[in-house]
Amino acid sequence: MLSVLADIGPKILVLSAGGASGAGPTLARIVSRSLANADADVTHIALADYPMPLLASGPGGNASVLPDNARKIARHLAMHDGVLLISGEVNASLPAAVKNMIDWVSLVPGAPWNGPPVVLATLTGKTGGQTAVGDHLRTVLEAAGVRDIPGTFVFRTAELEAAGEGEGMVSIRIRAVTDMLLRAIPRQLPV
């Protein structure tokens, strides 16, 4: 029986924008395991499990019909102390599905993005220093209402594939991501 709130670490949401296989889910599993080993309460969701129609803008747009999945993601944000958003990269920017999800969730009443801190992890197949996707993701999230983005980390798909289910070459960044998320202050959340 838990008698002290301090017995429970922060509630962390790991939101992976990838599908069921590949570098995104591998990174999500490694970070989730690292967080759980540090007594965090971890929830992992995949964007692929929350499909949403393309948000149309302008006259005749579909913004008045909010998808249930946007509401579900907003509820996840409200119930967690910190978020790790894992996103891939397309042409040095974020994938359309990630931008679409951010936009839909920003339309949910109550400013859901203005809640827990969001740590960013971007995946790239490039060998050079690809920070453009992280910068763009940060800009989009800030416009959507995120007030606290403590860090952005770039992971290369090849190094994650080489790590398998272990940490390998990415261990320093994994520890940095974990430490940053563990600093999330547990909020008094509704039960």
UniProtKB/TrEMBL annotation:
- The organism's superkingdom is given as Bacteria
Supply one GO CC term from the record: cytosol
InterPro entries according to UniProt? Flavoprotein-like_sf (IPR029039), FMN_Rdtase-like_dom (IPR005025), NAD(P)H-dep_reductase (IPR050712)
**Single annotated GO MF:** FMN binding
Please name one Pfam family that this protein belongs to: FMN_red
Task: Domain (NADPH-dependent FMN reductase-like): give its ranges.
Answer: 10-157
Query: What PANTHER family does this protein's entry cite?
Result: CHROMATE REDUCTASE, NAD(P)H-DEPENDENT FMN REDUCTASE LOT6
Q: What is this protein called?
A: NADPH-dependent oxidoreductase
Its source organism is Pseudohoeflea suaedae
